[in-house]
Design goal:
It is a single chain. The chain is an alpha/beta fold. The protein has a single domain, classed as Rossmann fold (3-Layer(aba) Sandwich), CATH 3.40.50.720. Helices cover 45% and strands 15% of the residues. The protein is built from 7 helices and 7 strands, in the order βαβαβαβαβαβααβ. Strands 3-2-1-4-5-6-7 form a 7-stranded parallel β-sheet, with helices on both faces. It is globular and about 50 Å long. The N and C termini lie far apart (38 Å). The relative contact order is 0.15.
């Protein structure tokens, strides 16, 4: 079966690493990005000749944009059997300073986008009796984090959706899983000072930040046809 994957947040970090990994496995790809035009062009150059792909600019916090992604994917490739919900934003702040506007921004980007994409993907997956969905949550989607209440809540929601959706869709041959990365060396975590980074690394048994490629290898495994894993939230933390 010719495989096709939609990857949100594909222009950099974990999404970029997933795109390269799946391209090497022969997938056709729908690369979803928002503002990182230069980065997506760099990725396109790397993928040229390796796989079929299209790039789609979309704000995944808007259901209409997610619908556009699926319309273009179906027009180009037909059945999309794999969905990687990777797009997300981080937020740090004291809870008593949070606003409704911030809540909406975090939840729409980190959770509503996942809900919408899963809803649209599931229709054809059910009809074809096959699908693989991987939702990128976070270690803070498994436990709480001071000053990251909204981010943590949004990622907990992703884990809850993953578990329930797998229970509903697995009988149709669709497996839904979440990965929960710890501290990964991506743009999202490059705001740390050298001292902060040193202190965090002291708490990580492996003694270093993770790599996007290490997360991508787990996500790639969860897209395999021969798979007996569903409804799981898999920690990728080196024991952090």
């Amino acid at each position: 079966m010719k495989r096709t994957a939609i990857i949100t947040g594909a222009s950099r970090g974990i999404g970029r690493a997933v795109a390269i990994n799946l391209a090497n496995k022969g997938f056709s790809l729908v690369l979803v990005y928002n503002r990182s035009y230069d980065k997506i062009k760099e990725l396109e150059q790397e993928l040229n000749g390796k796989c079929d792909f299209i790039s789609v600019c979309a704000d995944v916090s808007k259901p209409s944009d997610v619908q556009k992604v699926f319309n273009l994917a179906k027009e180009k490739f037909g059945f999309v059997d794999t969905l990687i919900n990777n797009a997300g934003i981080s937020h740090i702040g004291f809870f008593d300073t949070e606003t409704q506007e911030t809540y909406d921004k975090i939840m729409d980007t980190n959770f509503r986008s996942v809900f919408t994409a899963c809803l649209l993907a599931s229709k054809d997956m059910i009809a074809n009796k096959f699908g693989r969905i991987v939702n990128v949550s976070s270690v803070w989607g498994q436990k709480g984090a001071s000053m990251e209440v909204l981010y943590s809540a949004s990622k907990h929601a992703v884990v809850g959706l993953t578990r329930s959706l797998n229970a509903e869709l697995a009988p149709s041959g669709i497996l839904v899983n979440a990965v929960c990365p710890g501290v990964i060396d991506t743009d999202m975590n490059r705001h740390f000072s050298a001292e902060d980074k040193r202190l965090i690394e002291e708490d990580i048994p492996l003694g270093r930040f993770g790599k996007a490629e290490e997360v991508a290898s787990v996500i790639s495994m969860l897209t395999e046809e021969n798979l007996y894993i569903g409804g799981e939230d898999i920690s990728i933390t080196a024991g952090y």
